[in-house]
Amino acid sequence: MNLATLKHRVGERGSALIVSMLVMVILTLLGISFLMLGETENQISQNEIRSAQALYAGETGARMVKRWFDRPFAGTNVRNPPLAAMDRTLRMIDDDGDPATPALLQNGGSRPMYKQGVDLNADGSDDIFEKPYRGSLAHALLGTEDGPDIRIDESNAAAATFLAAVSNDLFGAYPGGPGSLEARITRIDIYSPPYVDVAGTWTRYGMATVKVHGRVVQTVAGSEQVLAERMVKAVLNEMPYPGPYGPLHSCDNLAFNGDLTVNWGAASAVGDSDLTNNHDKIPSSWPRVTPLGERADSLWAAEWANYMAAVDGEVIEDPWFRFLAGGAVADAPNANPQPEPFTWTSAIPPGDGDWPSHDNNPDDGNHSNVFQFQPIVSCPSFEYDLWKSIATSGDNDVHYYVWDNGTSFKEDGIGTAQTFRAITDNNEGLFFFDTVDGLAPYDNDADDEWDNLTPPIALQGGTWGTRGFVYLNTEEFQTKGITGRAATFNSPGEPWSDTDADGVYDVGEPYINLNYSTYSALYDDFIIDTTDAYGGGVMRNDKGPDVAGTAALWGILFNNGHFAATGNATYYGSVVANSGVGESSPAAGTPQLYWDESIIKDWPPSTWELPRVMITRWETDF
């Protein structure tokens, strides 16, 4: 080794240490970067979790508001908001949805607050969440997003107390964790649904919009910190129950040659009808003329006062009954749309075929309430996909059943199979029983019968009764010798001639004054009485008296298959058969069908375990 080389190596002493230190620094920086990146990722993950938790809180709050509309009475919800917690003064009324016209602030008078002065149950307090949700400025939800009909905001002391209490009820210590993490609802707004311009007309798509703010907060040293906040909107629609307008509807042909009787409303058949051998079972009534619409009752009024005087004090078998057929009525005396028109004049006393009952022997009652070849007759719609989506929504009081075998089903397709009878007897709710394959009814072989309906359901003997809405996809439904369960039958309001076909009684429209005071049992007679003052004063009564009875069904039954018009049972509400009404063995028995007028007025009752509204759209702040 020469001297030059030795000097060079001496000059390199310590370089390895420097390189090592540089490597260590670089590695340390990389490690710190990875730690910081990991911490950032962890923080992002925590933020996403907190954001999701705030979103869940908002969704839960929206479902809670839905239930306020479903159950607008105390004791059945997590917690109902007191009036003091609801600010209704912010309401900006937008009654047309047109952005070109300004919304107007409520003034407590001609522009009322939402439900201002609406106390239908006479408890001294405005019925905020009760039906109706339309018909006037006070009833409809017409507020804007910035000027809602109702605001519950924690900036208001009473609202803050309520929101804290209801948040604790709903979430407790959720989500928990360090620093006392808590989910909280901080604001609820309720206002009009979305409007959409349809061919130049602004159209409401829903009943209301519910907007809820949810937060996740953390308390540190007595100070509350907001970790996440989300906003959720839900559009509410009324449940589409009011399809029926009478106790029995056939969407095809109809035949009830035995002893089945239909009471208190309209029966209809889209197709042909056979009422042979049933003359006395078709109730006589006040004479009628061809109706302006299937839901409009058109009473004969050519000589109203004279006829009223002639039949004053007489029994009227069924003041509300009429029969509408889209096709022919078998054995009708002619092919006229109204086979037996009422032609009485006051020049002669009522005679054969003129009376409102069959009991004026030897004279017969009139049947001007039977119509055929009526193009106005349609089938009340209960669309399969819509009702299946409602049944599978997971909401309270809705039940979805998958067919297992015979007449047995499993709720949501899991668990132990139960028979239809066991599932529904003495129970209340919305029950949807699916087809054998879970598909909408179809007719691939074109034989006019659905191919995928479940086997017939025939309930026989003993006691059976259910209450609510039953949606069936069975080949046929029949009850034989069934004793129903307790039901309260409310006789309809006094019939009137709906001259403008708007479905609403208007002052001046003729009505039949009934002596309801003589009606106290289900089979009592109704009496025409021109001076009766039932309900206070001589006026049209919107409701008749309640009477106790038993019913196998109290509510609405829809079947995509047939309904068998034989076998003993009493139904109170409405039966709709998509495939028709006919006789099935045994061709005997005396089934009775009574119309529940509340189905078109205010159904379901607020005390029933049935949803009144549904969520049709969700929207979040993302």
Keywords, separated by commas or semicolons:
elongated, 13-stranded mixed sheet, 622 residues, alpha/beta
Q: What do you see in this structure?
A:
With 622 residues, this protein is α/β, with parallel strands linked by helices. It has a domain at 47-240 and 615-620. It is 17% helix and 26% strand. The model has no long low-confidence stretch (mean pLDDT 89).
Concise account of the structure shown:
The chain has 622 residues and is α/β, with parallel strands linked by helices. 17% of the residues lie in helices and 26% in strands.
Give the class from helix and strand content and strand pairing: alpha/beta
Count up the helices.
7
* Largest β sheet strand count, sense and barrel closure: 13 strands, mixed
* Fraction of helical residues: 10-25%
Unreliable stretches covering 5 or more consecutive residues: none
C-alpha Rg, in Å?
A: 34 Å
Shape: elongated
Mean pLDDT: 89
- How many β strands by DSSP? 32
Give the termini separation: 76 Å
Percentage of residues in DSSP E strands = 25-35%
Task: Please give the structural blueprint.
Blueprint: H1 3-11, H2 15-70, E1 92-93, E2 104-105, E3 150-153, H3 157-171, E4 182-191, E5 195-198, E6 201-204, E7 208-220, E8 223-238, E9 248-250, E10 254-255, E11 261-263, E12 266-269, E13 273-274, H4 304-311, E14 315-316, E15 322-325, E16 370-371, H5 384-391, E17 398-405, E18 408-411, E19 418-419, H6 420-424, E20 428-433, E21 457-460, E22 466-472, E23 476-480, E24 485-492, E25 526-527, E26 543-551, E27 553-559, E28 562-564, E29 570-577, E30 581-582, E31 592-595, H7 598-601, E32 613-620
